[in-house]
Design a protein that fits this description.
- The protein is mainly alpha-helical.
- The chain has one domain (8-96).
- Helices cover 42% and strands 0% of the residues.
- It has four helices and no strands.
- It has helices at residues 8-16, 64-77, 81-88, 99-120.
- It is flat.
């Protein structure tokens, strides 16, 4: 049977058109746009419960005052109900954490996938 593992924003239109049937989502909680679809954690596959995420990154060594200004601007834009609705309507969750929390999240994701690569002895060809 054909199956796809995709991000909700790109798959959601096909789900809404009944061209795809969602089975499970990789999210920390059920999504408002798919309230009847369980998370991987709920079906006993918590290690697979890895959400895709979006963020704003800058070059290494970017001055803290610039990072803080960009972060504040992003947080301010996410206070706009129209912007929040537009993002949430795609099935995305808004987290809007701090630059330090986002850096820790990226590092944690790296460590998860590094372990997968090391355990499976994956190599680039």
């Amino acid at each position: 049977m054909p199956i796809i593992f995709d991000n909700i924003p790109s798959a959601l239109p096909f789900i809404q058109q009944k061209r795809l049937i969602p089975i499970v989502v990789a999210a920390s909680q059920r999504l408002a746009v798919l309230p009847d679809v369980p998370t991987f954690k709920e079906v006993g596959l918590e290690p697979v419960n890895r959400m895709a995420y979006y963020g704003i990154l800058g070059p290494k060594g970017l001055p803290k005052e610039v990072v803080d200004k960009v972060s504040a601007g992003v947080k301010k834009s996410l206070e706009d109900p129209a912007i929040r609705k537009r993002i949430e309507d795609t099935g995305s969750l808004i987290i809007a954490n701090t630059p330090e929390q986002f850096a820790a999240q990226i590092k944690a994701e790296y460590e998860v996938y590094k372990k997968v690569v090391d355990t499976a002895k994956l190599k680039l060809e």
